[in-house]
Amino acid sequence: MLLELEEVHVSYGPIAALRGISLTVEEGEIVTLIGANGAGKSTTLNTVSGLLHPRSGRIRFRGAEIQRLSPQEVVARGITQVPEGRRVFAEMSVEENLLLGAYQRRDGAGVQRDLAAVYERFPVLYERRRQSAGTLSGGEQQMLAIGRALMARPTLLLMDEPSMGLSPILVQQVFEIIRQINAQGTTILLVEQNAHMALKVAHRGYVLETGRIALEGAAAELTASEQVRSAYLGGA
């Protein structure tokens, strides 16, 4: 088992955000979390990545508990997050943003190889590598956020709303990129409002409702579920 959450409770002050969720992610999978705004999807990712700490429960990565680690320690273990809203460093260049993704690495030659691989995957980033990241379009910034995360060489990539605010054509491109990254060996835990696209790309999924897991199963089973279709897929 690559990642396991066991009875995880997270609160923002007196407000319970996660109410004892348990889930697993196997090596090589794409697992998606779907649900309405406020269901706890982003909170789950932020808790795995160390930005939040659970009030109770355990998070295991490759069998070792990580729920008390700092975000830097979580990255060092092999987990990287593509944050909601992209959050690029607007005043820095595209290349500086990418190199920041590798800030914990000490293998200079490997970093340069991975930088070349990111540019090969996203040619537009190579063309704009000297530009300030804030001058990029929304789609280009999303590519930059993904590329920056890949520079850490993650075993597990956490993706928070990667299609948010993008045109339908760019949404298709982003999900194709997600498929490719997974096919090359990176496990992905995906939070996505676009439930239709998320279930199309994922192997398995969990439906969150008010901090609890309401449904889980293979992506095809969830797509066929009347409950999921009526609530998240726009009906039949």
* Mean model confidence by pLDDT: 95
Strand order of the largest sheet: 6-7-8-3-9-10
The residue fraction in helices comes out at 25-40%
Shape: globular
Question: How large a portion of the residues is in β-strands, by DSSP E?
Answer: 25-35%
CATH fold title of the domain at 3-85 and 154-232: Rossmann fold
The major β-sheet equals:
6 strands, mixed
Structural class: alpha/beta
Please, how many helices? 10
> Any idea of the CATH class of the domain at 3-85 and 154-232?
Alpha Beta
The residue ranges in which pLDDT falls below 50 over 5 or more consecutive positions are none
Task: Tell me what the CATH architecture of the domain at 3-85 and 154-232 is.
Answer: 3-Layer(aba) Sandwich
Q: Using only CA atoms, what is the Rg?
A: 17 Å
Strand tally: 10
Identify the CATH homologous superfamily of the domain at 3-85 and 154-232.
P-loop containing nucleotide triphosphate hydrolases
Give the SSE order as H and E letters. EEEHEEHEHHHHEHEHEEHH
Separation, N- and C-terminal Cα atoms? 34 Å
Give a short summary of the structure.
The protein is α/β, with parallel strands linked by helices. It is 38% helix and 26% strand.
What does this structure look like?
- This protein has 236 residues and is an alpha/beta fold.
- The chain has a domain at 3-85 and 154-232: P-loop containing nucleotide triphosphate hydrolases (Rossmann fold).
- The chain has helices spanning 41-48, 71-77, 94-100, 108-121, 123-127, 138-150, 168-183, 195-201, 219-224, 226-232; strands at 3-12, 15-25, 30-34, 56-61, 64-65, 79-82, 156-160, 187-191, 204-209, 212-218.
- A hairpin with a 2-residue loop joins strand 9 and strand 10.
- Helix 3 runs parallel beside helix 6.
- The two termini are 34 Å apart.
- The model has no long low-confidence stretch (mean pLDDT 95).
